[in-house]
Automatic annotation (TrEMBL):
Start and end residues of each AB hydrolase-1 domain: 2-107
UniProt keyword Hydrolase present: yes
Naturally occurring in which organism (per UniProt): Chryseobacterium pennae
Keywords, alphabetical: Hydrolase
Entry keyword rRNA-binding: no
UniProt-recorded name of the protein: Alpha/beta hydrolase
Pfam families: Abhydrolase_1
Signal peptide positions on this chain: none
SUPFAM superfamilies xref list: alpha/beta-Hydrolases
GO-annotated molecular function: hydrolase activity
Amino acid sequence: MPNLVLLHGALGHSEIFTPYLDSLSSYFTIHTPLFSGHGSNDLPADGITIEKYTQELTEYCTENNLTDVHILGHSMGGYVALCYAVKHPENINSIMTLGTKFDWTEEQALKESKMLNPDVILEKIPKYAQTLEKQHGSKWKQLLPAIADLMIALGKNPPLKNNLATINIPVQIMVGDQDNMVTIDESTAVYRELPNAKLAVLPDTKHPLDKVRPNLLLNLMKDFWNLS
């Protein structure tokens, strides 16, 4: 069976893919790696970057002997998937990204990173703080500033900039029409830059994966990968 790697986003967890596993396991051998700092994985002492996460994906594929992979990446997971495709085109068959932010500038990154203050989240969105603690343990408060630093580094030097045209595999860029982090315009711009891409705008869909209707996303996957 072909291999499908499901990549979670920043501050996310691979458990968000649970609603899809039964259906997809009929067609794929499924892999759900966790990025460092997430779940029970330690936060690296030297911090995290997109380049580090791309390296973690490379190591995961090497360790599991994956040379024939399809990837679905949510949010940051989609960005890492495309960075991996730039570096290892021979290992990868296709990519679907959902809710992946591509338009990173320093100004944008600073704005996004300011929202990642643990004290503000505890005060203003206590339910989200509980979710973060449940998924990542007590280190969630350290994970937030580490992700903020990752965003700022992305804003200063976005690794996909000027590299998209080198990705020749089939890619489907997907964005929800109610996503308040990612615009349809930036998704369309990336779709136009990729040589072999499709674009899907999901109706009545917000950014978090648990707010996406599973049947809607499953039907898009089945269509893209020609699953019957």
